[in-house]
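Hypothesis: this fold can be encoded by more than one sequence.
Test: take the structure tokens below, design a sequence, compare later.
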């Protein structure tokens, strides 16, 4: 059984006795920085002077320093920039300031797991990975709750790396929902697999395939959009609250029988075999090697693929329909964004 830590057995005292630098001020960065500040922690944000986020962080009442100055100032350095930028930031800004007794933290294990960042043995290396986008980390904290998180320790030079990481987790509100012990490898591999096979890759491909099947059969694109994309939220929300059982309890018997009869025809032994291959490519570093090299080349394949996906017919149909439903708080991503 998993070991899970909650508010009642974790103290804020450890993290409140440290100075914390949040490197980055994006989705996770703003949430961690503001939640820690409101938990009484001495926190600064590390950003390049040219970053557009400097003004946002300062407007929120946070102290902003360059990444290197922030690392020099702090005892705990949490790296919350994109995976692809972390190795460069580590080499140029953080590593020179990582003196004995400091802690390097991450919210995702990619760079430690695949060896693009190698940390001296005298530094604690740990992870607190909220299982939610940053805006939810912030919203739930403000509402007196929190989101679950994973904790892992890669290096424990001090002997208190886990306790400090748990204290940090309490500072951002995650122990209110539960913090589950894992490893850098398990977090990284399961996170990448979930994104690729289910949450992003699998779901997006299924939505597009269903939409294209209906449109190619002569049905109106607007009807296909509602059936294959719009209503997906209703089903996911039911799963989110009560699992597959609650979803099946809540839908019609006709929909439920469709679940049982059609699902196994789509997710076949061949599909599961391909899922296993995806997992193996994550585990053996094939995916990481591809993604690192793609970034080193300037991301030509990625940018071309993104542009093509942004022009898919489902995007144009969806934008027009969502514009007529202001209660959705619709967002439009323009080509090139």
């Amino acid at each position: 059984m998993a070991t899970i830590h909650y508010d009642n057995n974790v103290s804020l005292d450890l993290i409140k006795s440290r100075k914390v630098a949040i490197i980055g001020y994006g989705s996770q960065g703003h949430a961690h920085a503001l939640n820690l500040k409101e938990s009484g922690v001495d926190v600064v944000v590390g950003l390049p002077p040219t970053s557009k986020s400097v003004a946002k962080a300062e407007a929120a009442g946070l102290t902003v320093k360059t990444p290197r100055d922030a690392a020099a100032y702090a005892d705990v350095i949490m790296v919350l920039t994109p995976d692809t930028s972390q190795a460069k930031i580590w080499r140029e800004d953080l590593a020179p300031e990582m003196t004995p007794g400091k802690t390097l933290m991450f919210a995702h294990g990619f760079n430690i797991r695949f060896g693009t960042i190698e940390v001296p043995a005298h530094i604690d290396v740990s992870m607190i990975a909220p299982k939610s986008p940053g805006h939810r980390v912030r919203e739930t904290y403000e509402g007196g709750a929190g989101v679950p998180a994973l904790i892992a320790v890669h290096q424990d030079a001090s002997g208190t790396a886990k306790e400090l990481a748990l204290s940090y987790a309490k500072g951002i509100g995650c122990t209110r929902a539960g913090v589950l012990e894992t490893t850098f490898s398990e977090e990284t591999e399961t996170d990448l697999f979930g994104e690729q096979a289910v949450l992003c890759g699998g779901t997006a491909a299924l939505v597009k395939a269903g939409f294209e099947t209906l449109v190619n059969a002569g049905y109106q694109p607007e009807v296909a959009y509602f059936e294959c994309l719009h209503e997906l939220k209703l089903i996911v929300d039911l799963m989110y609250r009560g699992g597959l059982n609650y979803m099946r309890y809540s839908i019609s018997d006709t929909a439920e029988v469709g679940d049982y009869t059609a699902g196994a025809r789509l997710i076949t032994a061949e599909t599961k075999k391909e899922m296993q291959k995806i997992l193996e490519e994550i585990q053996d570093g094939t995916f990481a090697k591809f993604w690192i090299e793609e970034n080193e080349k300037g991301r030509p394949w990625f940018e071309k693929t993104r542009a093509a996906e942004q022009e898919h017919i489902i995007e144009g149909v969806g934008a027009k329909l969502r514009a007529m439903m202001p209660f959705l708080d619709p967002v439009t991503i323009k080509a090139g964004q």
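The chain has a mean pLDDT of 97. Strands lie at 4-5, 19-23, 42-46, 63-65, 76-79, 103-106, 124-130, 149-155, 179-181.
Hypothesis status: open.
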